[in-house]
Amino acid sequence: MNLRTTTILKVLGLFVLALFAVTAGGAYWLARTEDTCWKQEAAGAFQKYSALKTRSDILRHADIEKDPGSNPVEVVEKDPNGCSFGSNGQTVLRFSFGDSNKLTKIQVFRNYVASDYEMDLIEERSY
User: Fold this and answer.
1) N or C terminus of the chain: which is more exposed, having fewer CB within 10 Å?
2) Residue 70 in contact with residue 62, Cβ under 8 Å?
3) What one-character-per-residue DSSP string does 48-63 give?
4) pLDDT band for position 12 (50/70/90)?
């Protein structure tokens, strides 16, 4: 090989390495940004609902007209919420109640609508 071919191969190799580094960094940044967004969704949900202590208060505040009668109660808080790449993510809240219809637990899940994805727990708080 002559000097010109060697130089071209070195430059091409450095270009491919730089492209790989930028792509890997972008993928890492995107994943971290999405996780941060989901954590903010959970914090907002806890702030919105944690002051409410009874089933009727929560159902009224969640704008559910008819009590589903189930325990736990699931509520889609935001659809879509914008946290997922492609904007197909939902913030789903699950409220659990004790015997006297007092709130015992709030769970916040991420759910992707356009896939076979099962809901993933982001955060949970017990009361």
Assistant:
1) N
2) no
3) HHTT--BHHHHHHHTT
4) very high
